[in-house]
Design goal:
This protein is α/β, with parallel strands linked by helices. Helices cover 57% and strands 6% of the residues.
């Protein structure tokens, strides 16, 4: 043990997800903050109040609490639920295969898909304001009856009315932009690096300087997505006020420049963010000027269009635009799947991840599906309210006096696809768990026989409980078929948009297939309604959860679990995603460890997801510090989850490089009963990997100790620091780090 005067050995504990308190991390009732602030800080037991729980003799224990970065502010945590589709789209690129992304093709595809999500969001806003309210509801007396907040809009000519409602859609875009910008100010950009990598190569290695500094890339993408959103509203507005169609004289020029604005945004999405901030400003200034000019021109064109009467049906061009965006998403998903699978086939056998490398398209499909659910819920629920509880379709039209409040057919298909995904996903999950139960039980039986060879008959029930616990903890490895099924269902759901392109909805297709009786069409209408309501209920449950997160700190911590997992990576795809908390946590940890290492050896002790933060921090430490740093992980998902889902960043090669950087001063504790943690490396009795992993028997015994009243508990994922092997590992690592 290092007891030199003026020197101090430190065990720095980093907690996992769910935002636990500093008191629990240190296992001590009285703590004080010694560094950091209220968002994230370093804590120690108050001097004179005793030592931390599980402390090793002669080693100071410190805790880094970062949970408030995701579960701190109530408004930030609740509002993040609205950004879920954007978060999933940003997460997709980080699940890419370990092969080099030649020409940045995967990044470009993911950014384009993220751009379609922004367009989808704006189309939903346009569908509510311009289409349902301004075009379909206000002109009909039955719809605006007893609604004075809509009746006054009828006094305006249709052109100015649509222009005014277009401003409301632009305000919705501003709200989303403001949420993403405001929530990032609390902890982004901590300690900007002086040597930043090229944005195009940001996704190459966790060792790159400035890997976690995403402010420049996010700022660039934010401006581009604003241009896409504004351009979507401009195109929809000009198409709606053109009395003779978009090619009518007087509107073709404005419509053309609005399409050009959208095209410019798409082109800027394909290319990576500029390296130089000056070059980015040179590109964005004329783009912003063009955006303002085009938007003002479109609003003026709509205002001067006067009182062209609203036609029947939907806003002109809106149906085709919605179908076109869904079709583009389907094409991008197919291309993304092909490119990802091709890249993965070239990977080494020991680096082959779960799902054969299809994590990127699966996460992208999840983003598209959640975005479609949000969009369909918003449009259908508004239409339901405006239409007095009845949403018409070709089989059940409303009376003419009420008005044809018809959402786009693409949303009908999305509702059916969502219902099919839920039913088939539930069936596949149940089948997977049932079919794997026998295999998991056989594995658990072998483990129990090895750990408890001679068990008295009185403890047989206890033995069965341990065996079932181990079998349930292996469920994580069995979820691959469920995710593959989801990708197939999502792709087929998007493929149904081909019917929408030719103007056929679910009930119309059922009517053609079912003959003249119409019973099949009516059944299809009710099934579609059920799909809409199921999706709506799921989205409403998310909104209720967001409201509860605003009111309850306990619920806020539950919601934060999702953000702890989904916002770990920088925002290099969608700028409206919740901000990356690791942009502060990793540089802050590196700075604190660098300061502590000047006074003595440091053991970074990471539990669960905290082990991922600890590993990312070690990869960012300067070489002069690494000689005094050791790593202790427990309940760690590094290999079990992160190496399989993120092979390009935490694959076997990266983990071996991590161990070599610290001279293999690394110990990992794990249990068979832990559903999250596991070993880091495969068995290697002769190499340096052999000394890393240490398996703990859980429970310690099946029988009741003579000095106790109950048998030892099954501890599963927590705690680890109460075990003697934990203190032994800390002592060993400190000795090796003198």
């Amino acid at each position: 043990m290092d007891r030199t005067p003026g020197r101090e050995a430190v065990e720095l504990r980093v907690h996992g997800i769910s935002g636990v308190t500093a008191e629990r991390i240190l296992d001590h009732p009285i703590v004080v903050r010694v560094a950091g602030n209220r968002h994230a800080g370093f804590f120690r037991p108050r001097p004179g109040s005793g030592t931390a729980g599980g402390a090793t003799d002669g080693v100071a224990v410190e805790a880094y609490r970062w949970g408030s970065l995701t579960a701190g502010a109530a408004v930030r945590t609740a509002s993040m639920l609205l950004l879920l589709p954007f978060m999933l789209s940003n997460l997709a690129i980080w699940l890419r295969p370990p092969q080099h992304d030649r020409w940045g093709l995967l990044g470009a595809l993911c950014r384009l898909l993220a751009g379609t999500l922004t367009v989808t969001f704006m189309l939903a806003a346009v569908g509510v304001t311009l289409d349902l309210v301004g075009w379909q509801c206000v002109p009909y007396p039955g719809c605006r009856a007893s609604r004075p907040y809509l009746a006054w809009l009828h006094t305006l000519p249709s052109g100015p009315r649509l222009a005014l409602l277009a401003v409301v859609s632009l305000l919705a875009l501003w709200v989303v932009w403001a949420i993403g910008t405001r929530s990032a100010r609390a902890f982004e950009g901590f300690g900007p690096s002086s040597a930043r990598p090229r944005p195009g190569n940001r996704d190459e290695s966790l060792t790159d300087a400035g890997f976690w500094q995403d402010a420049q890339t996010t700022g660039w993408l934010r401006q581009v997505h604003v241009v896409l959103g504004v351009g979507t509203v401009d195109v929809a507005l000009v198409a709606g006020v053109s009395p003779g169609g978009v090619g009518a004289p007087g509107h073709v020029v404005v419509f053309g420049i609005a399409l050009g604005l959208l095209g410019a945004g798409v082109v800027l999405l394909v290319r990576p963010a500029p390296v130089s901030p000056k070059r980015a400003r040179r590109l964005l200034r004329p783009l912003w000027a063009a955006t303002v000019v085009v938007t003002v021109s479109c609003l003026a064109s709509a205002t001067l269009a006067g009182g062209a009467p609203s036609g029947s049906g939907k806003l002109p061009g809106y149906e085709g635009t919605a179908a076109g965006v869904v079709a583009a998403q389907g094409v991008l998903l197919v291309v993304l799947t092909v490119v990802t699978y091709t890249r993965q086939r070239a990977a080494l056998d020991d680096e082959r991840p779960v799902l054969r490398g299809l994590g990127t398209p699966i996460m992208a499909a999840s983003a598209v599906s959640v975005g479609a659910a949000f969009t369909a819920t918003l449009v259908y629920r508004v239409a339901d309210v405006l239409d007095h509880g009845d949403i018409p379709d070709p089989i059940r039209p409303n009376p003419p006096i009420v008005g044809p409040l018809e959402p786009p057919v693409a949303y009908w298909w999305a509702a059916l696809a969502g219902l099919a995904a839920l039913l088939i996903g539930a069936a596949v999950t149940s089948a997977t768990l049932l079919l794997s139960r026998r295999r998991r039980r056989r594995l658990a039986a072998r483990i129990v026989e090895r750990d408890y060879p001679d068990v008295p008959a009185a403890d047989a029930h206890r033995l069965r409980l341990v065996r079932e616990t181990i079998a349930r903890s292996r469920v994580t490895e069995e979820l691959g078929p469920v995710l593959v099924a989801f990708l197939v269902i999502a792709s087929l759901g998007l493929a149904t948009v081909t019917f929408d392109v030719i103007g056929i909805g679910p009930t119309q297709l059922a009517a053609r297939l079912g003959g003249h009786g119409g019973a099949f069409a009516v059944l299809a209408a009710y099934v579609t309604d059920a799909g809409v309501w199921v999706i709506s209920l799921l989205v409403i449950c998310l909104l209720v959860l967001g409201f509860r997160a605003y009111r309850s700190s306990q619920t806020r911590r539950v919601v934060a679990v999702l953000w702890d997992l989904g916002t770990f990576w920088p925002r290099t795809v969608h700028p409206f995603a919740p901000p990356c908390y690791a942009a502060r946590a990793v540089p802050e940890l590196a700075k604190r460890i660098t300061g502590l290492a000047t006074r003595g050896p440091v053991v970074i002790s990471g539990h669960s997801h905290g082990s991922v933060l600890a590993a990312a921090t070690v990869l960012q430490l300067p070489p002069s510090v690494l000689a005094r740093v050791s790593l202790l992980t427990y309940g760690s998902p590094l290999r079990r989850t992160y190496a399989r889902l993120y092979p390009a960043y935490f694959g076997p090669t990266s983990l071996r490089d991590l161990g070599a950087r610290i001279g293999w001063r690394w110990r990992n504790l794990w249990r068979d009963t832990d559903p999250i943690g596991g070993p880091i490396f495969p068995p290697d009795p002769d190499g340096p990997l052999a000394g890393v992993d240490s398996r703990l028997r859980d429970p310690r015994s099946l029988t009741v100790d003579p000095t106790d009243t109950v048998p030892p508990p099954i501890e599963r994922h927590w705690p680890y620091h109460t075990q003697p092997v934990y203190q032994a590992a800390v002592r060993e690592l400190i000795e090796r780090s003198r």
